[in-house]
Amino acid sequence: MEGTQTEGLDDLPPSAKLVFKVLEYNGPLTQKGIVQESMLSARTVRYALERLEGIGVVDEDVYFADARQNLYKLTEPAQEFTADENEASCTAD
Fold first, then answer.
1. Residue 40 CB coordination number (10 Å)
2. Strand pairing of 58-62 and 70-74?
3. Closest C-alpha to 75, from 33, 24, 16
4. Residue 1: what pLDDT?
5. Residues 29-55: pLDDT tens digits?
6. pLDDT given for residue 87 in this prediction
7. Dihedral, CA atoms, 62, 10, 8, 30, nearest 10 degrees?
8. What is the separation of C-alpha 60 from the centre of its chain, rounded to a whole number of angstroms?
9. 3-state SS of the chain: helix, strand, coil percent to 5?
């Protein structure tokens, strides 16, 4: 299953990649927070989160401040992927 995250992330629509980057830069957010940060519609964010969960780079957790909402965050393998990507771009200079 090695390499599936990069292939899976590359194959996603631009909206899912944007949601991934929003979570990467801002940390865990609710769906409402992702909508505000990304300026995408709620329906588009829901779809993007489903796709990201499908490839295993996003986890859904309970948002304790308001149990009606969920908190979305990048999984550990996804965070390692972004760290590897940043190191590769730094060494290319």
1. 19
2. antiparallel
3. 24
4. 43
5. 999 999 999 999 999 999 999 999 999
6. 57
7. 10
8. 11
9. 60, 15, 25
Query: What span, in angstroms and rounded, lies between the C-alpha atoms of 84 and 67?
Result: 34
Residue 4 Cα distances to 8, 58, 73, 80, 82, angstroms: 6, 14, 19, 13, 14
- Among 70, 65, 67, CA closest to 23: 70
Backbone φ, ψ for residue 62 (5° rounding)? -75, 135
Token representation of residue 63: 């948002």
Confidence grade of residue 2 (pLDDT, cut at 50, 70, 90): very low
Query: Count of CB atoms within 10 A of residue 39's CB?
Result: 8
Cα–Cα dist 25/22, whole Å: 5
Residue ranges per structural domain of the chain: 11-76
> What CATH number belongs to 11-76?
1.10.10.10
| Length of the chain, in residues | 93
